[in-house]
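Collaboration report, partner site 2.

Our partner group contributed sequences for two proteins of shared interest, and the home lab folded both. The records are reproduced in the order in which they were received, starting with the first partner submission.
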Amino acid sequence: MQSTTDVVTCTECGRRNRVQRSATGIPRCGHCHTPLPWIVDASDDDYDEIVGSSTIPVLLDLWAPWCGPCRFVSPALERLAVTHAGRVKLLKVNVDEAPAIAERFGVRGIPTLIVLDGDEVVARQTGAPPEDALQAWLADALGVHQSMQDANG
């Protein structure tokens, strides 16, 4: 069983902070209050709790350790989580260890990247594009999320 907290180093002041894996709101540094990158691993057992408690969009990375393109895209996704700290939660799911989640989303190729607003899929792509393309794709998906938030009040 995984711990319910992770330790994250603040990109602004360098302080280490405990961040709940499953929580509402946005994790912030206890010292300087800067939004912290929220990068979490999930399994079939805790996926619903982690996604269900998130009040910000979730960038779901469905990957496997034997997959070369997955290993290529992972550092870029982690940098995006830092860049978009406070706006997105990166959730990494190893499809070999979480087949129910892979099945839920009909994964046929990896890496599969999905932006979720609650249970709703906002954007989806399969493959490992360059980081600048990922940045544009995520920015567009977050813009769609913001438009949906504005329309709902």
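Second partner submission, folded after the first:
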Amino acid sequence: MIQVERVDFVSVPTRDLEKAVKFYGGTLGLERDRRVPARFAEFETSNVTLSLWQPEEQGVPFQPSTSGIALRVPDVALARERLEAAGVEFVGETVDTGVCHMGFFKDPDGNVLILHRRYAPHE
């Protein structure tokens, strides 16, 4: 067996790095890691890095991620309202699972992102 210490980054595929940088840095307001060479882009959250990559540059067919990256926010309704005002389109209504609220949307490349906030304690 191996010892996994933590998740360091999640890969986010893109066809247009400049457009993705504007979305993740501007629209979502995530902090870009300036130590990373300009031909790459990484955005920091408090617990994991979102690493943008262009699969087609490495001979890999582009496919958006449909599994969803859940972004914890203090208030899903308020975050959704602000993103909608910025032109972000959501998929369906905000979901209340009984333990959390979730709002699903996509980045410019079609990668699924989720606004998320748990309101019930972990069991």
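Feedback sent to the partner group on the second submission included the following. Strands lie at 9-13, 31-32, 41-44, 49-53, 69-72, 90-96, 100-106, 112-118. The domain at 9-55+64-118 is CATH 3.10.180.10 (2,3-Dihydroxybiphenyl 1,2-Dioxygenase; domain 1).
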